[in-house]
Amino acid sequence: MKKAVHKAVIRFAIFVNIMLVTLPFAFCWFWSYADGIVMPYYRRGNFLLIALFVLLYIVFGRTYDAFLISYYPFLEMLCSQAIALLMSDLIMYIVISLLSLGFVNVCYLLITFGVQLSVTAFWCLMTRKLYFTMVNPKLTAVIYDEQPDVGELIKKYRLGRKFNVVRVATVKDCMDGQMTILEGMEVVFVCGVHSHDRNIILKYCIGNNIRLFVIPRVGDVLMSSAKRVHILHLPMLMVERYSPSVGYLFFKRMFDIVFSVTVLFLASPLMILTAVAIKLYDGGQVFYRQCRLTKDGKCFFILKFRSMRVDAEENGVQLCSGGEDDRVTPVGRVIRRLHIDELPQMLNIVSGSMSVVGPRPERPELEEQYLKELPEFRLRLQAKAGLTGYAQVYGKYNTTPYDKLQMDLMYISNPGILEDLRIVLATIKVLFLPESGEILTKRQAVISELAAGEEKEKEKEK
Description:
The protein is an alpha/beta fold. It has 16 helices and ten strands. Strand 1, helix 5 and strand 2 (163-170) form a beta-alpha-beta unit.
């Protein structure tokens, strides 16, 4: 009953949010645009247009996790809602322009967006304040075999108001104690625990009404693609290698072509300016070509705008630390920050060597280093490499190869056009959020190790 009331309160709060942002749009429509379309609507048509805005806002809100009141800090939640509003208003502007048979005055809708942003900021602030006033942090236990840092992550990402970690124990201690560690808990995090022990914990939590969060292992992610079959009068789960339908591959390729050609057309002035700026700075080549791996380990040359000095890798592979790397040119810092350096990859997508959505391609040298510690890393190569992917959207704080592998396998295990569209839309939010540069990622560490190895080889040759 308590959980039902909690869900009802959350849904009511979301309903209030939707109404608060819909009212300014409705006022803008009736006041500024309704009478200007070619065939003005009567009552039903006006309400259908407003209902379309509501539907768009809900879809984009869910895509950008704009309604997760207790899981995101205020600024990230506000950013999610702002992007959802921007996308909804943009599409509605296109719809209104089509109904008017010409571009309408955008100023009214920009003012409306400003009002919507103000009311949603107020809603985010007040809703979070009321939520954490009314709801106490959940008594939480962390049970681990590997990756015992969930408690620290909860503190780091300011989820202490949601989860109160009172117990941290190994799975062995949990099993030896006959689950007494979990008594009185409301939430349990299970990290890297093998299936046998995890299943015992799972059954205990379900039986005692405890919410369970599981950080999966690679095998668990692979099992998520299992199909239910009945053979020998027994229920079975069938797991096989990535084998999407022909229809999905056809529509995915059509989407890749339409998307990349559209972006190339719209971004062509910006790309020309970028090319001129790179050429004028040092006279070097505009594009940077680098060997990467795609489906089934095939090599291709990825294209980017050159952001580093011409002699950046004359001594072999070196660690790149983004804007702090002295090899990055002033032009390079700007285009990296704005992600303009990635635009030439649209040519890779047109040629078919990449897709819009898929695991990000790695260099063969890095792949070899990863495989030494994680042989399963090659499973990412079941699908064609992509411009963006599941790991890029949801992996902001999970940069180790193991985490990256799991997120890529989550995408590979459940392919679909709607999933591709969702990832493309979610990527827009990532572009607005600052990248985390607080710690050296595992990928950077591997590059450093690789660079050091190459230096040693060169010293031996001398």
